[in-house]
Amino acid sequence: MSERATTSCMPRSRTDHCVPQTIATAGLLGDTSARDYAYKLQLFNSFAAPELRRAVASLDLKPGMRVVDAGCGTGAALAWLLQAVEPEGLVVGFDLATAHIKAAHAAAGAGAAVLQADLLRPPLARASFDLIWSVNTINHLRNPLQGVCSLAALLRPGGRIALGQSSLVPDMYFAWDARLERVTNEAVRRYYRERYGLDERSLADIRGLVGVLQRAQLHSVTSHTCMIERVAPLAAADEAYMLEAIFRGSWGERLRPYLHAEDFAELARLCDPRHPQFALHREDFHFLQSFTLAVAEIP
Q1: Please, what are the domains in the chain?
Q2: Distances from the Cα of 240 to the Cαs of 11, 47, 181, 234, 280, in angstroms?
Q3: Residue (of 40, 111, 48) closest to 78 by Cα position
Q4: Whole-angstrom Cα distance, residue 16 to residue 12?
Q5: What residues are paired with 226 via a beta bridge?
Q6: pLDDT tens profile 64-85
Q7: I need a surface site. Which of 166, 196, 259, 285 has the fewest CB within 10 A?
C-alpha cells in the first residue's frame, strides 16, 4: 500500500512515460506505515489461493523474468511468482506497512527480496522489470492513475502490469436473503462514509480498472473476471476467512449504528458460530465473490 497525493502523468518515452508528483498523506482507506491488517490479508490469501494461483499462471511467466509484487501485503504471492521465474528470475515485493513487511519476509524466505516502500516512490530502477503484479492495492489509492503511472515506470518496453481486484461484482453472502445482503452492504458504505469521508462513488471508482490502464496510455489492455465460489460444507480456510475477516472484521459491532435493530439481530445470529442459524454451517450456504485481473502492456 502507499501514502497518497496529487498526480501529474505525462508521456516522455517508451520506458519513462508517467512521472508521478507526490505529497504524502494517509491513504484513501487510512493506510499508513503503522497500520496493520496482516491477519486479514493472510486469511484472504489462504481462502483465495486457488483463484490467485490460476491468475498467476494465466500470465505465462518465463524463467529469468524480473517481477515486482506492488503492495505485496503478507507475501503469499511472492512464492507463486518466484516458482514461475526460477532459477534465473527475480521477484521483489514491497508494501508500506511495517507489520506486513515482517510477515512477507517470513513468507518469502530467502527466495524473494522484500522492501518497505511507498508505492508512489518505489526504490527500484526504472525500466528494469518484466511484470508488475498488484492485487487489492490500487483501491487504496486516492488517485489510481497516479499509482499505475508510478508502477508503469518500472517496466521495460513490452513489460506488463497486472492489476487484480476482488469484489467488483457485489458479493453474495446469504443466498436465501437478498434483502439482508442489501441493507448490510448499505450499512458498510455508511460506515466508510462516516469513518473515511468517502461516498459511494469514491468506493466504486475501482471498478474502472480498465479505464485507468487506458488513461495511463498503456497498450493491449485486457480483463478477465472469475468467480470465487464456495458452497457448504466449507473448507477450514474458507470458513476462517468469512468468519474472521468478513463477519467479525468487516461487519460485527461496527455496523450496529447503521442497521435497524431487527436487521442487526438477524445478522448477528447468522454470524455467530454458537447460534443454530450460523450461516456458514447451513446446508444452503452459497458464497460468490468476483476476482478481476486487468492486464496492460508498456508501449
Answers
A1: 38-167+197-228+289-297 (3.40.50.150), 178-196+230-287 (no CATH)
A2: 46, 8, 20, 9, 10
A3: 111
A4: 6
A5: 291
A6: 999 999 999 999 999 999 999 9
A7: 196
